[in-house]
Amino acid sequence: MTTDTQQKILDAVDASFDAQLATTRDFVAIPSTRGAEGPCQDMIGDLLRQRGYEVDDWHIDVGDLKDLRGFGPIEHDFSKARTVVGTYRPSNISGKSLILQGHCDVVPAGPLDMWETPPFSPTIKDGRMYGRGACDMKSGTIGALYALDAIKAAELKPTARIHFQSVIEEESTGVGALSTLQRGYRADACFIPEPTGETMVRSQVGVIWFRLKVRGFPVHVFEAGAGANAIMAAYHLIRSLQKLEEEWNERARADRHFKAVAHPLNFNPGIIKGGDWASSVPAWCDVDCRIAVLPGWSIAECQKEILACVSAAARDHRFLSNNPPQVEWSGFLSEGYELTNSAEPEAAFAKAFEAVYGGAVPDRAFTALTDTRFYGLNYNIPSLCFGAKGAAMHGFNEYVELESLRKSTKATALFIAEWCGVERV
User: Fold this and answer.
1) What are the φ and ψ backbone dihedral angles of 71, each rounded to 5 degrees?
2) What's the family (predicted)?
3) CATH number at residue 287
4) In a shared domain, residues 189 and 112
5) Are residues 323 and 345 in the same domain?
6) Domain boundaries, position 136
C-alpha cells in the first residue's frame, strides 16, 4: 500500500470523526446490560444494512453451544439473545479474510448517584467520552465500522471477505462469540478493538465464575450461639479462597508473559446475598465469585482445586464440617489465551501501527480476558486485540480518550487495508 493511499484513508477517518462520535454516543446511550442487548443489536443491524452489508441476525440457541469448547453456563433469561453479523463480499478476491468483532453488552452501572454524569447519557468533556460502555467497548465497535467507512470514502474497496460481528455475553460467558463460530463464520484472522491502551494483547488470563451456597441454622439473635451464621461461614470460605489465590499467583511467577506482572490472578467475591432478618441468625448466604487462571491451565483441574479448597475450609468449620457448602459454576469457564501462529497478521498490523503511532507495537499481558480466545483456541485463527486508551471500565465515570480513539480507528483502517488488500472503486 502506497503512502498516498495510506494518507487518503487517514484523512477519511479525520473527516468522519465527528460523525463517528455521534454514532458512538447513540450506541453508548442504550443500556445494554445482560439480557437487554436487543436495541443495540437492532442499531448495529440498521447501520450495517445502511452500508450495504449482507446481514445475518439470529437468535442464539444454547443447545447448539453447550458441548463446544469454552462454553459457560447460562442462568438468566436468554430468550432474546441475538448475534448480528454483517458480511462484505468482494467481487475480486486477492487478499486475506478478516473477522472484525465487538461486544455490545455492558456491566451494570451500580448506584447512579455515584456517577458524576449519568452512565447512559454519554457526555464529552476534556477530550473524553464518559458513559457505561464508552470504553468497554462500544467506542471500539463503532470505530471498526467507521474504519471500514474510511476505506470506502478513500475510493477503495477491500479485496477479501470481511465479517463484522456484534456479539453479546462477552462480560459473562462468551457464548455470543462462540455462536458465530457455531454458525460457521471463519476468516484468516480476527481483530477485536477492545480498549487495550494502545497495546497488543500478547497473553490473557482465563476466568472461572462460581457461586458458594452456604446454609446455616437460624435462631433469634438473643441466643446466637445456638445457631450457625451462614454469612460469617461464607467469610470463612472466602478467606480460604484468598489463600488459593496466593498459591496460584506464586505459580504465575514462572509464566513467561505474566512473571513480570504483579499479582496477575485475581480472586473476587463480587456478589453476596444472604439472610432474611436483622434479628435472625442468617440461614443462608450465596456468594458469586470470579477467579483468573493462566493460559495453558486446565479449567477442569482448576475447578477441582477450587472444590478441594472449599471442602478443606468446610472441614475446619464447626457447622460447615457437617453441613458442607455447595459450589455452582455460574458463568465463565474460560481458558487463558496466548497469541500464537500470528506472524502474518501481526506484520500487517505493525505497518499500520508504525504509520499512525511510529515505532513498534507495545505488547501486553492482560489480566482480564477477551473473546479472542475462541478463535485462537477453537479454530487456530490468529486473533489480535488492540484498541484505544480509557479508564474506569466496570467502575464509575468510565471513559474513552477521544484522540486515542481517533488513532486506533486509523490503525484499524490501515490494518484492514493492509491485510485484506484494497483496489480502486
Assistant:
1) -65, 140
2) Belongs to the peptidase M20A family.
3) 3.30.70.360
4) yes
5) no
6) 3-204+336-424
Ranges assigned E (strand) in 223-336: 267-274, 284-293, 326-334
If one counts the domains in the chain, the total is 2
Last residue of a domain, one of 334, 361, 380: 334
Which residues pair with residue 206 across a beta bridge?
293
Residues 130 and 29 in one domain: yes
pLDDT-derived band at 87 (thresholds 50, 70, 90) equals very high
Q: Distance (Å, rounded) from C-alpha 276 to C-alpha 243?
A: 30
402's CB contacts (< 8 A; 6+ apart) are: 21, 124, 127, 128, 129
Are 276 and 416 in the same domain?
A: no
Residue at 223: amino acid letter: E
Q: Please tell me whether residue 186 adopts helix, strand or coil conformation.
A: coil
Asked whether residue 25 falls in the same domain as residue 158, the answer is: yes
* Distant-in-sequence, close-in-space partners of 235: CB < 8 Å, separation ≥ 6: none
CA dist 139 and 299 (Å) reads 32
**Dist. CA 389–CA 324, nearest whole Å:** 45
Full-prediction pTM beyond 0.85?
yes
State the Cα–Cα distance between residues 409 and 150, nearest whole angstrom: 9
Give the amino acid at 244: L
Do 238 and 188 share a structural domain? Answer: no
Query: Where does 29-138 have alpha helices with state H?
Result: 38-50
User: Looking at the structure, do residues 348 and 302 belong to the same domain, yes or no?
Assistant: no
Omega cis (within 30) before 200: no
Bridge partners (DSSP) of residue 281 are: none
Same domain, yes or no, for 197 and 311? no
Longest dimension (CA), the chain: 83
The domain boundary residue, chosen from 318, 334, 350: 334
Rounded to 5°, angle at Cα 291 from 290 and 295: 135
Burial class (CB in 10 A: 0-12, 13-18, 19+), 248: buried
Query: What residues does 213 pair with on adjacent strands?
Result: 286, 326
CA distance readout (Å), 314 to 1, 213, 307, 317: 63, 12, 11, 5
The values of phi and psi at residue 98, to 5°, are: -150, 140
Per-residue pLDDT band at 30 (split at 50, 70, 90): very high
Calculate the alpha carbon distances from 423 to 4, 15, 158, 347 in Å: 13, 21, 7, 20
Q: pLDDT tens, 92-139?
A: 899 999 999 999 999 999 999 999 999 999 999 999 999 999 999 999
Q: Distance of CA 403 to CAs 89, 326, 408, 412, Å?
A: 31, 49, 9, 14
137 prior amide bond cis, ω within 30: yes
Average of per-residue pLDDT across 238-245: 98
